[in-house]
Amino acid sequence: xxxxxxxxxxxxxxxxxxxxxxxxxxxxxxxxxxxxxxxxxxxxxxxxxxxxxxxxxxxxxxxxxxxxxxxxxxxxxxxxxxxxxxxxxxxxxxxxxxxxxxxxxxxxxxxxxxxxxxxxxxxxxxxxxxxxxxxxxxxxxxxxxxxxxxxxxxxxxxxxxxxxxxxxxxxxxxxxxxxxxxxxxxxxxxxxxxxxxxxxxxxxxxxxxxxxxxxxxxxxxxxxxxxxxxxxx
Amino acid sequence: xxxxxxxxxxxxxxxxxxxxxxxxxxxxxxxxxxxxxxxxxxxxxxxxxxxxxxxxxxxxxxxxxxxxxxxxxxxxxxxxxxxxxxxxxxxxxxxxxxxxxxxxxxxxxxxxxxxxxxxxxxxxxxxxxxxxxxxxxxxxxxxxxxxxxxxxxxxxxxxxxxxxxxxxxxxxxxxxxxxxxxxxxxxxxxxxxxxxxxxxxxxxxxxxxxxxxxxxxxxxxxxxxxxxxxxxxxxxxxxxxxxxxxxxxxxxxxxxxxxxxxxxxxxxxxxxxxxxxxxxxxxxxxxxxxxxxxxxxxxxxxxxxxxxxxxxxxxxxxxxxxxxxxxxxxxxxxxxxxxxxxxxxxxxxxxxxxxxxxxxxxxxxxxxxxxxxxxxxxxxxxxxxxxxxxxxxxxxxxxxxxxxxxxxxxxxxxxxxxxxxxxxxxxxxxxxxxxxxxxxxxxxxxxxxxxxxxxxxxxxxxxxxxxxxxxxxxxxxxxxxxxxxxxxxxxxxxxxxxxxxxxxxxxxxxxxxxxxxxxxxxxxxxxxxxxxxxxxxxxxxxxxxxxxxxxxxxxxxxxxxxxxxxxxxxxxxxxxxxxxxxxxxxxxxxxxxxxxxxxxxxxxxxxxxxxxxx
Lengths: 233, 614
What we know:
The complex is a heterodimer of chains A (233) and B (614).
Chain A: H1 3-10, H2 30-43, H3 55-64, E1 87-91, H4 96-108, E2 114-118, H5 119-124, E3 146-148, H6 155-170, E4 195-196, E5 200-201, H7 206-232
Parallel strand pairs in A: 1-2, 2-3
Antiparallel strand pairs in A: 4-5
Chain B: H1 4-25, E1 29-31, E2 40-42, H2 47-56, E3 62-71, E4 77-85, E5 93-100, E6 105-107, H3 116-127, E7 130-132, H4 206-211, E8 227-232, E9 244-250, E10 253-260, H5 268-274, H6 281-285, H7 292-307, H8 318-347, H9 352-372, E11 381-382, E12 385-386, E13 393-395, E14 407-409, H10 410-433, H11 437-443, H12 451-456, H13 462-466, H14 473-476, H15 497-524, E15 545-553, E16 556-564, E17 570-576, H16 578-582, H17 586-590, H18 595-605, H19 609-613
Parallel strand pairs in B: 2-5, 6-7
Antiparallel strand pairs in B: 1-2, 3-4, 4-5, 8-9, 9-10, 11-12, 13-14, 15-16, 16-17
Helix pairs in contact in B: 7-8, 8-9, 8-15, 8-18, 9-10, 10-15, 15-18
């Protein structure tokens, strides 16, 4: 965004500004100004977590290196610790074994936090969807802000994803508690960590598990009753 | 290239082995006389003795690959196949041991070949064969407590539809099918009947920690140090992805190291059995995602070996082989540059050497993109050739020689890349790093793997050659046009990190030497066919049988073990991944070193997780 665009967007159209001064002056409300500065700062200093999963991670590294240079977005500071990161790039296939640490890492990130699902696997399982150890999409476990399709997405596509994320940040307003929940009362609820049982178990689905178990228990009862009925006949 | 020759050689190798072993073990060894199969079937009770004799008396000292096959409906037994080779070169020998599906027990061969360790654990995990005498028979790719052994033919995954593709639900009408909508949980999960969370205790990871005495244990010594257990990974900047190590430290010294893997286990084997032969080609791209083209090469070699058993088979054309070698050697340079970059990353030169490597990588990728249409996932090889010829013109955003920026004549681009740009980049790497004090101090004498250990642990590629074993599949068991090409096998003697680095630099130089010859051959074969199949039909007719095809990948010997029952789909598809098997020796290399060295030792092995976990 150029300086002119920034001022034009900030300016309140109801208040007249002398001709020829439009590129230098913007009159606006305090709230709008605060939002603009707040988001401008955040959108240009997103620190991604350096966290590669699979093939897409290599394109993520290529994006960070000289030809594509994600430093232009203020994103060159890759942090290894989730506590210092704003953005989790889920770059690759999420397996059932790996989703447990991923959910933990997500819970450890400080708000405001964003998730970018990079590549077909992270979006929906991709070519490995039918695999017994593959999670069909990270959004089954943690909320995702931006999806970047491709297998793997080219660095250009990932850069486009970053721009979409910046747009999303621009749309968040301090005046609207729904779009900035991290200023709400108390900490946000962590995502329940999945359990590695006979298969991966999402604790949020415990009720479905119980219902299914009851259904299978009920089914043999019916069969037995049928046998009894036959025996009586 | 005639594919028949090695088969005959292998058969004679099997014959001579059989005559020797029959004398010694009488009825315990017999020839495998199934159509399309080769090798010896050994009585499980005598397996260890026979294996020791094969190693010591016949000289098959190198266990390349060990994998299990489930012959459900065709004998109803599980079969463990050991592919053995001599480190002096020559054709291989396949040992087999069969066991019934319900008892599924075989003696462990870890005592004969320590390199069987992880491979037997994998066979236990995925196929459910219990190995008696194995030192640590735990699941390796899945977690403890997972239900069933997924590679058994009667085991079905949550999104199971049919045994073989194309699925009726989608083909030929092109229907949309969302597997989530057919699952009660909307996810890729299936539980045993009647399973609930009430009172369920997941199998914890205590096993890793209990043995290692979690907690503080102060010992009387010169300097009092605590004994602690640290879990490195799976999210750790130095593990090259999602690899995990549980290390027991005494102070800062490594006492024990247990690799934990499977965090990127994407079920290549199971999906590969559902796919048709050709459908597996794009999946091989995603194994070692730095070297997709040489992975294609390995799979093509394996399936072509199998197809050579049939009648209607024409070997790849000469131009196809030239293009294949071009791609494989460019990939090798790309991989080694990046591997050195990552290794320096692990030593603390955060990102700078890697940035230099990635500049060159982008130039090579521009060429791959122009030829195959994709930067990384090239899916370019076909059985009998390659998918398309080199284009006459290509685009690149590269600025090779400060002249052109976008439009290139492809051959001109290649000439400039191979004759000037890449040698310069390799020299630059050499100049900046080889005598660098930080690199030499951190790497000389660290992570030593002796010659004997390297062979016993089935190490491959630069790890094996840095330990003084001049074993390169391109020379030891030649494929494609490598016998016609002039190059030397890079080898060093000390087996430490520094020598692994030097082997990589030497190999890049040899690759440039090969590429220069390939450039000449490309010019000579211009306009010749690049595919031997008729009418451009890529889907092959693969006769029943078994083949183990291998190529020298940048990371080591990449093998594909393919079993066909004569149908459209492979009966068994197994990948012998160099990254996976090279890690067998990781603990040996790390013991006694400091915790900071573990990271560099891992970097020097050059692993890639897509291939490690498959």
